[in-house]
Prior knowledge:
Layout: H1 5-15, H2 22-25, H3 35-46, E1 53-57, E2 72-77, H4 80-90, E3 93-96, E4 109-115, H5 124-137, E5 138-148, E6 168-171, E7 178-184
Parallel strand pairs: 1-2, 1-4, 2-3, 4-5
Antiparallel strand pairs: 5-7, 6-7
Bound molecules: S-adenosylmethionine (SAM).
Organism: Clostridium diolis
GO molecular function: S-adenosylmethionine-dependent methyltransferase activity
Domain Methyltransferase type: 55-140
Amino acid sequence: MEDMSYWKEVWERKGNGNTTCLEELDGYEDTTADVKEIAKQIVKELDIKETDRILEVACGAGGLAQYIKCGEYVGVDYSSSLVKRHIELLNNSVLHGEANNLIFKDKTFDKVFCFGAFHYFPNQEYAKQAISELKRVAKEAIFIGDLPMTSHRKEHLLYDKNDFKDWKITDGYYNPCRFNVSLKLV
Ligand SMILES: C[S@@+](CC[C@H](N)C(=O)[O-])C[C@H]1O[C@@H](n2cnc3c(N)ncnc32)[C@H](O)[C@@H]1O
């Protein structure tokens, strides 16, 4: 799946819908995901403290962000409509951008996470670039969640646990066909 435009258009449309439900804007409406619980697990996994500077890559409208308490939260997403909704609904600092090309300087954030987005990337090369960007802008740790091993959608990019040998791997939070990875940088 090399075409960037397919999923980008889907997420652009999402943000232009009428709902103000953050979970729905972020695409969780037809899933069993408990978004509050997922946020709790990410806070635990990354040991997010109330003083931490946090970046969420592919943050959407803020489905998870609404539950993350930290010193400073910054989000990035490639959907302009979702960025707009996120700012309107949560008043967070959110920038428009691609996961594989972050505008921040090295080690700008204490911890960086990306949940529920890697399967929308166009190919493995893009995913590798995104991982090195996450590592570059983080000081202490990064977390990537919801990586699918298999999927009912042919448009989803799939991942293999064997490609994350130096990482801590955990089971998907709501879907047994998915897994999460995290890496301590210090
Ligand atoms: C399922 S939503 C998850 C949103 C948020 N992380 C959450 O869990 O509530 C997926 C998000 O990934 C974003 N996204 C997908 N591919 C992206 C890319 N290449 N760069 C930046 N954002 C991307 C979409 O616009 C969408 O907001």
